[in-house]
Structure formats: structure tokens, C-alpha cells
Batch of 2 targets.
Target 1
Amino acid sequence: MGTKMNILVTGGAGYIGSVTTVALLKAGHEVTVYDSLVKGHRAAVPEGAQFVQADVGDRAALDEVLGGRQFDAIVHFAASIEAGESMQQPGRYFRNNTCNSLVLIEAAAAHSVGRFVLSSTAAVYAGKDSPLSEDDRLEPANVYGQTKLMIEQGLDWYRRIHGLHYAALRYFNACGAAPGRGEAHSPETHLIPLTLQVALGQREDIKVFGTDYPTPDGTCIRDYIHVEDLATAHVLAVDALGERDALTYNLGNGAGFSVKEVVQVAREVTGHSIPAVDSDRRPGDAPILVASSERISHELGWNPKFPELRTIVESAWKWHSTHPRGYDTWSAPPPA
Ligand SMILES: NC(=O)c1ccc[n+]([C@@H]2O[C@H](COP(=O)([O-])OP(=O)(O)OC[C@H]3O[C@@H](n4cnc5c(N)ncnc54)[C@H](O)[C@@H]3O)[C@@H](O)[C@H]2O)c1
């Protein structure tokens, strides 16, 4: 284990941020979660972490926290996360993701925080090759991906000018649950929780968008990476930034699963028939998006511990079946 650090986790009341906070605490670090609760849940913040309710765009609040004691690292999850919505409300995404992140990065530089880890995304890629490596062409197909790419690029200037060490971690589809912590997005748009909501009687069926793609069963193939594997990668990245000043890694499973495969495994795990309705393709969906995570595997020794689709769905089902309304403060949307 590396040195004990004092770490600020923005968005730590959200899905991936809360599970990563648990992993950072387990690794012996001190953690302050900084979250406005615009989407997150107070109940998701692990015991043992400090909690500050404030917005990442609030420089005065950041100065108070970062000025109160020396932080060694910031792990930045807080963001608006829906690619579809980003095409309806681009301004909201540029403001919350790009502008607010720049406020945070400036505050990090002003308070001499040496390490910064960014939640980036597979949406930065043009998405033509499979598996995608970090050197593939960057050409976001939506505003969400563009906002993340802009922050990655901004971070590199802060590295050059201020010596800020950063890691950009490009996640593919985060999934699964940790004990007592799982997905509770509102609205939910991710395939596994939506499918499990059918098994819970919260929606009638699951829509399969496009069944004529050039894939073995005609449905889109995506890379699903377990949230606890993502959390481990953040712990490794924070440590590695002691030596290295710029890290860019894909975080994926390397194995893609089709929409039909996910629904079938969900049927097996839940024992529910989960009706699926074939629907038209959605514009902008690539047939296959699968990550090569060889770089982080080779450089930091990270490898997914939960690559099996069944294990992923079982862990998600454990969470959703015991928390059908998510965290106490959250009510699921009515059946579609
Ligand atoms: N879920 C995925 O599959 C996925 C894939 C790729 C990248 N990501 C990225 O990972 C990160 C976490 O995603 P998630 O699924 O855990 O989302 P989430 O919505 O569960 O968590 C985001 C958290 O950030 C907080 N937040 C948002 N804007 C804020 C602001 N301005 N100030 C303070 N807090 C704010 C929310 O309250 C929420 O708790 C995001 O940056 C997202 O873009 C997620």
C-alpha cells in the first residue's frame, strides 16, 4: 500500500464515487466527500468519510475546504452524465462539466493539491475500432463526451504550467453493485438497472434499440465494467501519480456483451421472464464499443476481478432487489 493521503472526492455521494470512497478508505486514506446532492444521496456517503454539501462551481466553498487543511489529491466524479440529455441541453453540460471542473482545477492549483483524477468516458472516442485503445481517434459524438475531452485537455495544460499530476480514466459502461451501494440514477438510462426494474415490476418491458446491427445477434455490444473494479483503478491511479504526471487509461472489461445477452442473463438471475421489445435503432449508437485496458493492466497491474456478466448482474440484482427504491431519499420513477 502507498502512503496515506488526504483526498477530496467530488461526486462521492453518487454511484461510482461512493464505491470508490469505500475503496480509498479501505486503502487507509482520509476522504472528504464533496457533493451538492443534485443527483447523489447522502445515505451513499460511507461512514468514515467527511461530508461537505456544496457545488463544484462554488469557488468560495472550495477555498474553504481546500484551505482548511492540505489535500494531496482530488478524485473528480461530479458531473452531469447523460449523453442523450447533453444533446438537448448542451449549455448545462458545458457549464457543469467543463466550466465547473475548471473552477475545481484552478482551486486545486491555487491550494497546491498535487494529484487530480478525472472520471472520463469512452464517449471521447470516435468509436470506429474495436477494441479501442487510448491512442484511438478522439472525436466525441455527443456534447457529454466533448465536455470530458475538454477537461482532459485542460488538465494537461495545468500539468505543463502548474505541475499538476493528473489521470484521465475513461470508463466504459459502469455496472454492478458493491455491498449496500448500487446504481440509483434518476432518471435511469443504463441497461442493467432498466432490465432489473422490469423484474421488480417497475416497468413493463425492456426496449432493445436496434436488432439489425452487424453483430452476432444483431444487437449492440458494449463493455461492462464492475463498479468495484473501477474503484480499485482509482486507488491505483492516485498512488501512481506520485511518480507519474500524466496517465490516460481505458477502464473496461475487454469482453463485450450484447443487449440480448444482458437481458438473457438478467432473466436467469432473477427468474423473471423480462419481456423485451424490439425497437428502432437510436441515432448515434455504435454497433460495438469495447475497451482495450492493456495499458493500465501493463503499467499499474490492474485487472478486472469481476469480468463475468453473470457476476455483474447478480451483484446488481442483490442491490436492486433489496433497495427497490434506491436510497431512502430517492423515489424510483413510475413504471414506463
Ligand atoms: N455510469 C457510467 O457508466 C459512467 C461511464 C463513464 C463515465 N462516467 C463518469 O463517472 C462519474 C460518476 O458517474 P456516476 O454514474 O457515479 O454518476 P452519479 O450521478 O451517480 O454521480 C455524480 C455525482 O456528482 C454530483 N454532482 C453533479 N454535479 C455536481 C456539482 N456541480 N457539484 C457537486 N456535486 C455534483 C451528483 O450529486 C452525484 O452525486 C461522472 O463524471 C460520469 O460522467 C460514468
Note: The first strand starts at residue 6 and ends at 10.
Target 2
Amino acid sequence: MNVPFVNLAAQYLSLEEEILAAIQDVGRSGGYILGEKLESFEKDLASYLGVKHAIGVANGSDALFLTLKVLGIGPGDEVITAPNSFIATGWVIAATGATPVFADVAEDMNLDPRKAEQAVTRATKAIIPVHLTGRPAPMMELNALAEEKNLLVVEDAAQAIGASYRGKKVGSLGRAAGFSLHPLKNLGVMGDGGIIATDDSNLADTLRKFRNHGLKSRDECEFWGFNSRLDPIHAVVASIKLKHLDRWNERTNEIANRYRKGLQSLVQVPEDKPYEYCVYHNFVIRTEARNGLMAFLEKEGVQNRVHYPIPIHLQQAAAYLGYKSGDFPNAEQYANTMISLPIYPELTDEQVDFVIKKIGEYLK
Ligand SMILES: Cc1ncc(COP(=O)(O)O)c(C=O)c1O
């Protein structure tokens, strides 16, 4: 049996007719930038997330970067985030001219509020909690910290669309949030895409101009901006997929439960907290036997990955920040022991059982 790590074409094929018709519709409409198809998706997504505004941008990194810029983050400011995220979480801070400051993560691989608190200085302006692997970060504690220290909270919800925390969807828990519509994400388009979510109407209004050159009308530029818009061709694909997202996330949870049951006596598995609904963009197990197990699984036809083998603070790009190995023991230990197993709605129970069996074979 073969268990590919992803199978993006399977999802496309299940919706092919509808997607092709929608793309044809865009083609025939002649409206290829901004316009009503994008607006319609933005409205549907805002309502799905339970926020007032969703703003389509070119990718999830821009969603975070543009938001930080409009919130006034820049040189001299510090922004606290987790070191075990995708590198974009780090570079978007640096790209504003601010300094990325990392704090260690807890057992759930999300920012540890006590560690975040210790990282606060007079220069700290914002926190970016990352809902890593589709599991919500501890927003109650992080929001309390932000309130006490007067910090902005911008959620990195790139991996967590549809997840919820204490009854609210992620993306509605901070001042604003960035989502990625990258093909690998739980709501993925056929290229790059991103969304900013916010309840703040002034922020949304500025961001809509900021993503479009700073234009307030066809010919009038209010401030220098960027060209970072979600294309209607992606918006229509996302609209179609949004209708299936909850069902897909439910299936993903079934798979996570099956893995959990089959593996909990063998390796460290993620455990949901009672007040969170996780969407498992990645299902990450941890074991000291990681390297051998990865190679064995690969040989047996089970593709696997590590998200992420080098924490951001140890990346060459971050060397100027002066961090060293040992600074964030949890993040570093997880980087050395974790494996992401295949998880996507199209995976069959037989494939999941095969993965469990092969892990058992190696570890026993
Ligand atoms: C946690 C996290 N943040 C930010 C991003 C950036 O999103 P994008 O690739 O759409 O720019 C990603 C995904 O790639 C991500 O996983």
C-alpha cells in the first residue's frame, strides 16, 4: 500500500465539474481583478468565521505583513511569536522593520503565555500567536497578557481555518488574523491566496486600499500601498470549497482520532483540550526514534515530513537576532522528535490503519 503525504488532485477531482464551470464563468465575465466574485467570497468567509470583514490578499504571508504594517508596526518595535512556525511568521515581522522576538512553546506546540510574558519589553508592540497544526493557541491567556501590557494580537491562523476555541472560530480572537489559502491548507486554492479577518472596520477599510496600491478610487492614491489581491479565479474555487470545509475538517478529526487511538501507547500524540476544536492541518507525533522511524515509513510507502526541522530562531536568516541552540528547549526538542503523518479528508481508514501498523512494527 502507498500512503502519499498529500493528494491535492483527489480533492480537485471530487469537485472538478463545479470548479471548471466557475472558472469558465470568471473567464467569460472578463473581471479578473477584484470585483463581485471576490467580494462574494469575502462576505461568505467573514460570516463563516464570525467576523465583520474578510479581505482577500495574495497569500497568507501578505495577510500578516500588511496587517502589521497598517497597525503601525515598524522599526524599533518588537513582536513576540513562536519559534517553531513556518518561516513566514518570522519574516513578516522583520519585513516591517520590527524585531522578531521568540518565546518558547508548551506541550501543545503553541506559544506558552508565561514564556511570552517573560519576553515582553518596553519595545514590545504585538504578539502573533500561531495556531500551529490547526490547534488553537491559548488565546484567553495571551489576550489577557496583551490587555495587561497594551499589546496588539494578530493571529497567525494560516493552518487553522475552521478551528475554534471556547466557542469562537480562530481568526475572530484577536485584533486581526491572517489565513493562508495555499493549496496545502485546509481551505486551499489552485495557487497562492490569503485572507485577513477582522472586526475592526477602520482597519479593514485601510487594508482594502493598502492591498490595492493605496488607491481610494481608480485614480486617487491616499497612501503608498502594495499590490496584493486575491484573484477572482482563486476566490471562486475557495467559495466552492468553503461549502465542504466543515465536512472535510470533521473527516480530518476522524482520522486524527483513529491515529490517536492506534498510536497513543507508542508515541506522543496530540490531545485536544475540552474547549477547543482542532482541524489538524498536520498530525504531529513525537518519538525519540524519529529519524529511524521516518526512514522506515518512507521505505514502506508511508510518506512523512517534519514541520519544521529548523526552528526559526536557528535559521541562518535569523542569525543577526543572536539566538542560539538551547534558547527554546521545547521548540528545539519537538523539532528533533516530531513527524507529521499523512492527514487529509481523502485518506481512507485502510490507509490510516496501514500507517498505524507500520509505526507499531518499527517501534515494537
Ligand atoms: C503558520 C504559517 N504562517 C504563515 C504561512 C504563510 O502562508 P502563505 O504560504 O500563504 O504565504 C504559512 C503557510 O505557508 C503557515 O503555515
Note: Residues 59-61, 85-86, 88-89, 130, 156, 158-159, 180, 182, 192, 194 surround pyridoxal-5'-phosphate (CB under 6 Å).
